[in-house]
Amino acid sequence: MNRFLRGMLWAVTLLAAVSGIALALAGCGGGGGSSNPPGVLAPTEVVQPWPLPGPFAVACSNIVQDFSRLVPGEDATSYWEGAPSGGGTPRYATDLLADPGNTLIATVSAPQDSNLYGSFAGDNVAFVVLACYPTTVDNPYDNYSLPTGKVVPHMQTGSDPPLFADASNRYPVVAFSHGYSGSPLSGDYISALTVFASYGYVVIAPFHGDLRFSDLRIDNLRDAIAVASNLDNFTALQALRPRSISAALDNVLAHPQWKDHIDATRIGGFGASMGAETMMLLGGAGLTTSYFDIGSSWKQVTHDLRIKAAVGYVPYFGQPVLPAFGRGQDGLGGITLPFLGISGTADTTAPIGEVEIGMSRLTGTRELVALSGVTHGFDNTSTNDIFTWTFMFLDAEVRGNLVTKQQLSTMASVAGGGDDSVVIFYNGLP
Fold this sequence. Notes:
The protein is α/β, with parallel strands linked by helices. It has a single domain, classed as Alpha/Beta hydrolase fold, catalytic domain (Rossmann fold, 3-Layer(aba) Sandwich), CATH 3.40.50. 26% of the residues lie in helices and 21% in strands. It has ten helices and 18 strands. The protein has helices at residues 2-19, 76-80, 114-117, 189-198, 221-228, 231-254, 274-282, 352-361, 383-397, 402-410, and strands at 45-47, 57-60, 104-109, 124-135, 144-145, 151-152, 171-177, 202-206, 262-272, 286-288, 298-300, 307-313, 318-319, 322-323, 339-344, 366-371, 411-414, 420-424. Strands 2, 3, 4, 7, 8, 9, 12, 15, 16 and 18 form a ten-stranded mixed sheet that branches. Helix 9 packs across helix 10 (402-410). The longest helix is centred in the middle third of the chain and has 24 residues, at 231-254. Residues 9-32 have low confidence and may be disordered.
């Protein structure tokens, strides 16, 4: 994501200079004042962390790949993330799939709206999907080894059906959105998916393939000019993300092997960095569509009412010079999606100040937690803090646990781990 920020700011600064627009307004963004009601006392309770992983064994859907298709100098992550080849040829996870007929693949038909979808308006775009779920302790499916050294646990192969821990149960869902230029298999994301599934969620995670749409790598002036002249597709990248989540949900909820095991009334979301922006767009937020006037124009992308609540880790709400949801984050006004933000106080890529401004616009249940000294990326010291806050919020807002709601209203931090504290207090009680 740091590469994304450098690329975006360089591109914006370059064209702003060409256009004569003063980016000295970078300190603007609105907001100010407390986001908590006057007279409300700060929570004080310190809770014990939830054990990791959870009580369930985990299995995942078919994602078998033919790594012999890689040429020397290439790696699988480039395909998972949609990175172009050295010659600029687009590539994607579909190019590696060895059994596409048994792999979950969702298709998005981008609307004919060039303001949001740039050169991809009207196109059909494929998104590979990985699903992980709670399984039986004696699941016979083998782990699937990845070239990165990670494994996909108990992966289905061929037409093998998912083996749920309780075949008669309907499980709640977490729609999972990774950060810019990541994938469900890159870095530590596969580990995060399995943690969610170990607590009884079916996790549905598309490979966004961001770099297919806009690669914000900038190593020289030519790269900067190329990015700056193609910012419409940066908007498309962001607008296609929530639609890929909705399409993935459509796919799995209609799939004969999955549909009878999922509770479609209990769907939550989790997004990291730009994935958190994706969650807000699913909730009906307006996305910035102008880049050289501090985001004065914004437009709603979609609104998927199936998402009951969402959590964002190091949530990307943009920069003061370019808020993600319009100038002053006004595109978040009136949004009712229950949302928990977990931000790092030292994060310069996704500044907590922009998150607080944006969340102050929300009119539904909300809570913002600060991780002291944490920068952009996963903070290992705060692992228990991150997942405990996340599972409690989803338990309260997706599963509807009234006891957890009450506990969130008094919860100040998680014992041990990093230094976590509440900035915007939970307001989810009647």
